[in-house]
Amino acid sequence: MKLLPFSILPALLLLAACSSEPSQADLQAAVQKAVDRQNESMQNMVGGVLDMPKFALNGVEKLSCTSSRDKPGYVCDIRLDITRPLVGRTVDQATARFIKTDQGWEQMEP
Q: Domain extents for the chain?
């Protein structure tokens, strides 16, 4: 009976590893996917006829992440360095929710 706690320890460690918050690299990749989708959506709106100016992600800095209380994933405060069409390059702070999928981390609405 005393072996039971030791037998569940690896399972608990595995579960803890699966539930860890996204790293800065994870956030960068997730935001890049969202930017790529935005660019593709803009291009599809004009039927691919015009070469639309594109958003360019220059960097993402992770400020903090907390486990979301009412939805899956983590709510993270991030600093975005992004170049926007007609606006230019800006650095903004944003809050976004991130969930882990089979394809990696995905950015969602908070």
A: 22-108
